């Protein structure tokens, strides 16, 4: 399938799939979307909710990303966790990895003014698949080349970044069957965030046991969803 690098409205790059009229991130801003949907509504919400329950800085937060893609969500999570001195065990699942020549055209390091961590971004893409790697003393990364339907983790993650392609092109990724896998994979109290806001997605989440809330969406999108495993 043809893939094209393009610049989103906040100046950051993404990948467009013209055959599907689909892109890896919002055309209104890849970095803005990542921060809004996954960092603010997911990562920071988890820290806020759990800060009084235990010394979160002394443990490792486990994160599952559904759609590793360009590595943007993983890289931003690394930057934010580094600021807060929090350990992360990150698993990114991707069936169709981004090619090395495409990675070279991504401008996230420059746009995030993270030049000191260029080597980190490079390493995230260079490491082998299906093995756990140490990106830094406080950040472990496992990239799984895997179809989402084959995920079978149980009670393993504190956070899920659900960043699959949209239901218009891949409706099979937004079903009760997939969200049942997500529910089982999360620990009690775990959080799943996604840019999606369709009623059918919300109902599928609720049907498997999630408590779901609608939140204001990122630029260009009215709403998004956050699900909690109570």
- Major sheet description: 8 strands, mixed
Domain module tally: 1
Number of strands: 11
pLDDT < 50 runs, ≥5 residues: none
C-alpha geometry? globular
CATH-derived topology: Rossmann fold
Structure description:
This protein has 230 residues and is α/β, with parallel strands linked by helices. The protein has helices at residues 30-50, 72-84, 100-103, 108-111, 118-126, 176-185, 199-207; strands at 4-7, 13-17, 22-23, 60-66, 87-93, 132-136, 139-144, 157-162, 186-194, 211-216, 223-228. Helix 2 (72-84) links the parallel strand 4 (60-66) and strand 5. Helix 1 packs across helix 2 and helix 6 crosses helix 7 (199-207). The chain is globular, with a radius of gyration of 16 Å. The chain starts with a strand and ends with a strand.
Outline:
The chain is an alpha/beta fold and 230 residues long. The protein is built from seven helices and eleven strands.
How would the blueprint of this fold be written?
Layout: E1 4-7, E2 13-17, E3 22-23, H1 30-50, E4 60-66, H2 72-84, E5 87-93, H3 100-103, H4 108-111, H5 118-126, E6 132-136, E7 139-144, E8 157-162, H6 176-185, E9 186-194, H7 199-207, E10 211-216, E11 223-228
Parallel strand pairs: 4-5, 4-8, 5-7, 8-9
Antiparallel strand pairs: 1-2, 2-3, 6-7, 9-11, 10-11
Helix pairs in contact: 1-2, 6-7
Task: Name the features.
Rossmann fold; 230 residues; 3-stranded antiparallel beta sheet; alpha/beta; 7 helices; 8-stranded mixed beta sheet
């Amino acid at each position: 399938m043809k893939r094209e690098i393009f610049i989103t409205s906040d100046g950051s790059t993404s990948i467009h799939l013209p055959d599907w009229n689909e892109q890896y991130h919002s055309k209104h801003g890849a970095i803005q979307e990542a921060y809004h949907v996954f960092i603010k509504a997911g990562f920071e919400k988890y820290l806020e909710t759990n800060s009084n329950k235990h010394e979160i800085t002394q443990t490792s937060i486990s994160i599952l990303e559904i759609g590793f893609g360009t590595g943007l969500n993983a890289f931003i999570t690394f930057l934010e966790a580094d600021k807060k001195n929090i350990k992360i065990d990150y698993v990114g699942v991707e069936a169709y990895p981004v090619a090395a020549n495409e990675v070279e055209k991504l401008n996230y390091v420059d746009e995030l003014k993270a030049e000191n961590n260029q080597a980190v971004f490079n390493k995230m893409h260079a490491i082998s698949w299906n093995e756990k790697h140490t990106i830094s003393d406080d950040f472990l990364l496992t990239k799984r080349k895997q179809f989402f339907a084959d995920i079978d983790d149980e009670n393993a993650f504190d956070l899920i970044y659900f960043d699959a392609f949209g239901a218009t092109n891949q409706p099979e990724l937004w079903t009760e069957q997939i969200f049942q896998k997500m529910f089982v994979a999360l620990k009690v109290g775990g959080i799943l965030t996604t840019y999606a806001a369709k009623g059918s997605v919300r109902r599928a989440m609720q049907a498997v046991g999630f408590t779901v809330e609608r939140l204001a969406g990122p630029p260009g999108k009215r709403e998004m969803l956050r699900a909690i495993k109570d």
